[in-house]
Specification:
The chain folds into two domains: 78-93 and 128-482, Glycogen Phosphorylase B (Rossmann fold, 3-Layer(aba) Sandwich); 508-809, Rossmann fold, CATH 3.40.50.2000. Helices cover 48% and strands 14% of the residues. It contains 34 helices and 23 strands. Strands 1, 2, 5, 6, 9, 10, 11, 12, 16 and 17 form a ten-stranded mixed beta sheet that branches. The longest helix is centred in the first third of the chain and has 29 residues, at 48-76. The radius of gyration is 28 Å and the shape is globular. The model has no long low-confidence stretch (mean pLDDT 96). The protein binds (1S)-1,5-anhydro-1-(4-chloro-2,5-dihydroxyphenyl)-D-glucitol. Keywords: Carbohydrate metabolism, Glycogen metabolism, Glycosyltransferase, Pyridoxal phosphate, Transferase. GO terms for molecular function: glycogen phosphorylase activity; pyridoxal phosphate binding.
């Protein structure tokens, strides 16, 4: 278990300590108090869930006290605030993380043990908040942790989805989705603030008029309005008093609107309208790295962005009594284009509601916003049909046309007659009925800074996807390689390894991950290596027990744990991994005595419900598993396990137990990846392509400690340009042919030769992601992995060096760069003050 940091324990108990005290006695009293008065139970009636709630509430009390102090300090110091706007926050369970960040995990564990309760079991009762799809949402969560730890005033703004990412079940090998009813047993962590509810308009039309000062004004008369109710969750920093908030908006029907219908006698119609409004925050769209272009999605985006900007403006005016300095006191980060409608919305609020003139409003807007791009995939770029856009947000469409008119006038001056360039830069694409609003172009024009999420990704943005914008304003572009929080991804997720590290080098690594370098000196120490191995072994045993319980598969904990966990997507190439498994299977079948390294292949990840090919890949993995796991002639040398419902909590356990990390996307397709960092931090070695942040991971850990495979990005481009033909690779590779034929003849589908045809056809006749081109390189590299794993001592050495050299990939490093180079914000330390009578 993690070590506690120094927290005050006076040993004395006072009544007010029930909500703030950190002594064992105070904590015990607090938990009993919350059990009684929060859950209405005593120890006779209380269920494990009641105990979980009591612990969570006891931590929430302690955080709220610090939150109040934090908010006061930020106001007293006129601090500039970072607003992180994101449609997704994939937070994972809060309670363990709060115990860690408060530094009392061990103490609470001890207190509970004295009453025969096991903290770790109780923490598992928390329903994980899964308000995100994958990398982008989890990055937002890591960044909130680092912002608070670095004592930066910050608010995360998003949507309080009633249903988070669906729960995945595997039925007969296929993915099935079930709704994630995460709120049905209550949420101990949120506090609602109905008094800060915010009105959002939709539809209708605009009217222009001249005001009493003779100024031209526009009035938006909406078709209907919706309320946003804010729900706050405290976000504690590690070992500091700063507690920021995550503010999520829930949609509720507005009463005024209902009243009209009710008064007109249309009771059922009014209730139906109410349901329409409340639909907005109902469900998270389950697509990752693709867009669905649905009206409800645009409603969600505008809804939370409008609520958030109105909230920012309300507090700014309350504090400064003017909006002239808004951009000096706020930095608004757009997490992808999902909140980029905010640029038009801030213009509307400043001009139409606060009567600012265009030039000043535009100056403030451009200086408030910065935009993070997360993808190079064309199918992930948001483009809304002008028709739909104008119907839902008529005023915003006018504003976007005006921004575009002014922007293109400047462009024309700079590139006279270059009409193609002007068409590419325009915020509007196409002609006539299928005109589209390009949200990435809006984000670029309206932001002061534009960043990619890994060095290679930023370079490709500049050369490719956003090339015209880069040529126009190169000073706007900046790279911010992603990072992950060492609190959740090592301290909380891998207590055995954290304890060893702290024992050896002290605890400074927790907030200064570069300290891990000090582990290098032990890389050749036999005793240390031995302990390092024992820890991985223990983590593997825990995971093996989980797999046995859930999948009823017995895995050999001496086999190599070869893991690919991430969203299912063709470009991530889970299918290439499967081709390798079948290759090994064929080798054993060909020669039963072949000396093959025993491996356990572990998969996890969700497919977007409408993504047929991704779902078929899941079916293939499970079909291969069914054949391979039960074949006695393999003598247990190969096992395949697809773990259903992969989520943050499960991933913590998986990273701790992993030995080989599969990062094999087609070069140039994965913007960064962040799982790659979590694996290496926990001592797994990477087999990977030169894609996204893999490039930088390899630089840091050293080429000799990284298993490189596949084409590089320039090679991919070249091959595509000269006309890639998968047949050329197929016809000359007999091992590959054998693999494809085995799938094709129905070996993994009870003789059904049609089931996997769509996968095989796409490989043989198109192979958009060039699996065949990389097949041989991947297989050769996997063979090197097998040899290396047999050199136990050297493998352990490489594993230690991977962990030791992961300092760069802390989200603390990433966030301090954002603070200095994009947001221009400074830490604001917060003092802790006990209650006093003056608080009344
Ligand atoms: C998403 O999770 C990512 C990009 C997107 O455009 C969307 Cl819509 C969702 C991921 C990238 O695929 C991944 O490479 C990156 O590490 C992550 O965002 C965080 O930047």
């Amino acid at each position: 278990a993690p070590q506690d940091t120094q927290v005050p324990d006076s040993g004395l108990v006072r009544v007010e300590d029930d909500r703030t005290g950190m002594s064992e006695q105070s904590l015990k009293r607090a938990i009993v108090d919350n059990l009684h008065y929060g859950q209405g139970k005593d120890n006779y009636f209380a269920t494990p869930y009641d105990y979980y709630m009591a612990i969570a509430r006891s931590m929430r009390d302690r955080l709220i006290k610090r939150r109040i102090q934090t908010a006061r300090t930020h106001i007293q110091e006129d601090s500039k605030v970072v607003y992180y706007l994101s449609a997704e926050f994939l937070m994972g369970r809060y309670t363990g993380n709060s115990l860690i960040n408060l530094g009392i995990y061990e103490r609470v564990r001890k207190v509970l043990r004295e009453s025969g309760l096991e903290l770790d079991d109780l923490l598992e009762k928390e329903h994980e908040p899964g308000l995100g799809n994958g990398g982008l949402g989890r990055l937002a969560a890591c960044y909130l942790d680092s912002l608070a730890t670095l004592e930066i005033p910050a608010v995360g703004y998003g949507i309080r989805y009633e249903f988070g990412i669906f729960e995945q079940e595997i039925r007969n090998g296929w993915q099935a989705e079930r709704p994630d009813k995460w709120l049905s047993f209550g949420n101990a962590w949120e506090v609602s603030l109905p008094e800060y509810r915010t009105e959002v308009k939709f539809g209708g039309h605009t009217e222009s008029y001249t005001d009493t000062k003779g100024r031209y004004q526009t009035n938006w008369i909406p078709e209907h309005t919706v309320f946003g109710i804010p729900y706050d969750t405290p976000i504690p920093g590690y070992g500091v008093n700063t507690v920021n908030i995550l503010r999520l908006w829930k949609a509720e029907s507005s009463n005024e609107f209902d009243l009209d219908a009710f008064n007109a006698g249309d009771y059922l119609g009014a209730v139906a309208n109410k349901m329409f409004s409340e639909n907005i925050s109902k469900v998270l769209y389950p697509n990752d790295d693709t867009v669905q272009g649905k009206e409800l999605r645009l409603e969600q985006q505008y809804f939370f962005v409008s609520c958030s900007l109105q909230d920012i403006i309300r507090r700014h005016i309350y504090h400064y009594n003017s909006l002239d300095n808004l951009h000096e006191k706020s930095a608004i980060q757009l997490n992808d284009t999902h909140p980029s409608i905010g640029i038009a919305e801030l213009m509307r609020l400043l001009i139409d509601v606060h009567q600012m003139d265009w030039e000043q409003a535009w100056h403030i807007t451009q200086n408030c916003f910065a935009y993070t791009n997360h993808t190079l995939l064309p199918e992930a770029l948001e483009r809304w049909s002008v028709n739909l856009f104008g119907r839902l947000l008529p005023r915003h469409l006018e504003i976007i046309y005006e921004i575009n008119f002014r922007f293109l006038s400047e462009v024309r001056k700079r590139y006279p007659g270059d009409n193609e360039r002007i068409a590419r830069l325009s915020l509007i694409e196409g002609e006539g009925a299928d005109k589209k609003v390009r949200m990435a172009n809006l984000a670029c024009v309206g932001s002061r800074k534009i960043n990619g999420v890994a060095a290679l990704h930023t370079k490709l943005l500049q050369q490719d996807v956003l090339r015209d914008f880069y040529e126009l304003a190169p000073e706007k572009f900046i790279n911010k390689t992603n990072g992950v929080t060492p609190r959740r991804w090592l301290l909380l997720g891998n207590p055995r390894l954290s304890n060893l590290i702290t024992e050896k080098i002290g605890e400074a690594w927790i907030t200064n991950l570069d300290e891990l370098r000090k582990l290098e000196q032990f890389a050749d120490d036999p005793q240390f290596r031995q302990t390092w191995r024992e820890i991985k072994q223990a983590n593997k045993q825990d995971l093996a027990a989980y797999i046995e319980r859930k999948n009823h598969i017995q895995v050999d904990t001496n086999s190599l744990f070869d893991v690919q966990v991430k969203r299912l997507h063709e470009y991530k190439r889970q299918l290439l991994n499967v081709l390798h498994i079948i290759t090994l299977y064929n080798r054993i079948k060909r020669n039963p005595n072949e000396d093959i390294l025993p491996r356990t292949f572990i998969f996890g990840g969700k497919a977007a419900p409408g993504y047929f090919i991704a779902k078929l890949i899941i079916k293939l993995i499970n079909s291969v598993a069914a054949v391979v796991n039960d074949d006695p002639s393999l003598e247990g040398r190969l096992k395949v396990a697809f773990l259903s419902n992969y989520n943050v909590s499960m991933s913590q356990q998986i990273y701790a137990a992993a030995e080989l990390s599969e990062q094999i996307s087609t070069a140039g397709k994965e913007a960064s990846g962040t799982g790659n960092m979590k694996f290496a931090l926990n001592g797994a070695l990477t087999i990977g392509t030169l894609d996204g942040a893999n490039v930088e991971i390899r630089e840091e850990v050293g080429a000799e400690n990284f298993f490189l495979c596949g084409l590089t990005t320039p090679e991919v481009y070249e091959l595509k340009a000269k006309g890639y033909n998968p047949q050329e690779y197929y016809q000359s590779n007999s091992e590959l042919q054998e693999v494809i034929r085995l799938i094709a003849c129905g070996h993994f589908s009870d003789g059904d030769s049609q089931l996997f045809r769509p996968l095989l056809d796409s490989l043989l006749y198109n192979d958009k992601y060039m699996l065949f081109a990389d097949y041989q390189s991947y297989i050769d590299t996997q063979d090197r992995v097998s040899q290396a794993y047999r050199q136990e001592d050297n493998w352990t050495r490489m594993s230690i060096l991977n962990t030791a050299r992961m300092g760069k990939f802390s989200s603390d490093r990433a966030i301090s760069e954002y603070c200095k180079e994009i947001w221009h914000v400074e830490p604001v330390p917060v003092e802790f003050k006990e209650y006093s009578p003056e608080d009344m």
